[in-house]
Amino acid sequence: MCVNIMANVEEKLIISGSSPLNGEVSIGGAKNAVLKLMAAALLCEDISVIRNVPALSDVEIMLDVLRELGAKVTYNKEEKFLTIDATNLTGVRASDAFVSRMRASFVVLGPLVGRMKEAYVALPGGCQIGERRVNFHIKGLQALGCECKLENGYVHAKAVKLVGDDICFDIPSVGATENIMMASVLAEGTTRIQNAAQEPEIVDLANFLIAMGANIEGAGTSEITVRGVKQDDLHGVEYTTIPDRIEAGTFMSAIIASRGKGVIRNVYPNHLTIFTGKLLEMGAKIRLIAPNTMEVSADKRLEAMNFITQPYPGFPTDLQALAMTLLSVANGVSVVTESLYENRFMHITELWKMGANIRQSKNHAIIKGVETLVGTSVCSTDLRAGAALVVAAIMAKGETEVKKLHHIDRGYENFTQKLQGLGVNVQRVPYDAKDYETLDSKAVPSR
């Protein structure tokens, strides 16, 4: 069970680094998949069961969104399965109280419009990693026949009926692809989504919808075709979520950072091809010892390398901060280019505090590897930056405090326990008085 998912008491991690990790870790269900499956369950006037559901604060928020819409939900955290009864929805309004806290909840827009022909959904929130527009979502729904308005911080979408159309995104958008795919399940005729996002989570959502009775082809490619079905064609489904590729990448990074050796179970290696390739380029050793099990190790200082974040199947932006952390102690100079989100370098100032030599120039980070990082007090700035700081603490000399754990709790289940299972000297403890006094300090070393 996740530790203090929605706790009111602020907590921090205290990590003593510089020891090689060793052991095994099992990867949980994919956060970025399960949240969308939960939304998709709204399309069906029936009961659906989703398995391999991680106990995360984001999952709790999505449960609140579903309840607000009238769905009956039961979540067994111990067995990691979720039952959603969406037989009788009572509303079409997803309020700011929930949606502003997590961007992924905005994907209830598509299934609500598809089934109810109306949705009133607050503009999304979540990690402040950069501008993430909703114009692709709105243009796609308009192409299907919706009238869409922005009203007081909400998107109000309404249609007499939905009719399939050809929709081409300027750039691949995961959220827009998901929303339009779900909305078009019950549209008349055929919808073609061109320049669609190709992430594994998109494929997982399509497979869930197909199991429910939808007619979808092409998920995982740049063109997805959805042939509309009738409401009566949809039925409840029992479905198991894919493993979380970002969690897998996080633990791969932690083991490699410590120059340790560990086994990662319940992972789909083909979801991490680019990331794995870059780790190998840096000098890590990665071996597939079973179809869904990898052995990861490193026994010497890593080498510098360059990469650019791109939509899948390119280098994932969600693993950028972790890779940068590894490069901060690599031999040589590396260049990291963030092409997707303009504010996804906020962790750099925290790495500076630990002795990293990183210079930022717009969306480029130039990293000159240092011999070692030094433990200090740092704060998570977003979900993946928080995980990266934990990895930095694992390889740093001395003790590091990582604060603002609510970011990390959004995407990592039993994080402390899993780290301890690999041999990390880590404790999760409440803030003390000094923490509250210094939390809002903006002072960072100059660069």
What characteristics describe this protein?
447 residues, alpha/beta, UDP-n-acetylglucosamine1-carboxyvinyl-transferase, Chain, 2 domains, four-stranded mixed beta sheet, 24 strands, disordered N terminus, disordered C terminus
- Radius of gyration (Å): 22 Å
Helix segment tally? 15
Largest β-sheet summary:
4 strands, mixed
Oligomer: single chain
| CATH class membership of the largest domain | Alpha Beta
Strand content: 15-25%
The helicity comes to 25-40%
Number of domains: 2
How many β-strand stretches? 24
Report on this structure.
The chain has 447 residues and is α/β, with parallel strands linked by helices. Helix content is 30%, strand content 24%. The protein contains 15 helices and 24 strands. Strand 4 (72-76) and strand 5 (81-85) form a beta hairpin. The longest helix has 13 residues, at 200-212. The chain is globular. Mean pLDDT is 93; it is low at 1-7, 126-132 and 441-447.
Indicate the topology.
Elements: E1 11-16, E2 22-26, H1 31-40, E3 47-51, H2 57-68, E4 72-76, E5 81-85, E6 93-94, H3 96-99, H4 109-116, E7 118-122, H5 135-143, E8 147-151, E9 154-158, E10 166-168, H6 174-184, E11 190-194, H7 200-212, E12 215-217, E13 223-227, E14 238-240, H8 245-257, E15 261-265, H9 273-282, E16 285-290, E17 293-297, E18 307-308, H10 320-327, E19 333-337, H11 347-353, E20 357-361, E21 364-368, E22 377-379, H12 383-395, E23 399-403, H13 406-409, H14 415-421, E24 425-430, H15 433-438
Parallel strand pairs: 2-15, 3-14, 6-7, 10-11, 18-19, 22-23
Antiparallel strand pairs: 1-23, 1-24, 3-5, 4-5, 7-9, 8-9, 11-13, 12-13, 15-17, 16-17, 19-21, 20-21
Helix pairs in contact: 1-2, 1-7, 4-6, 5-6, 6-7, 8-12, 10-12
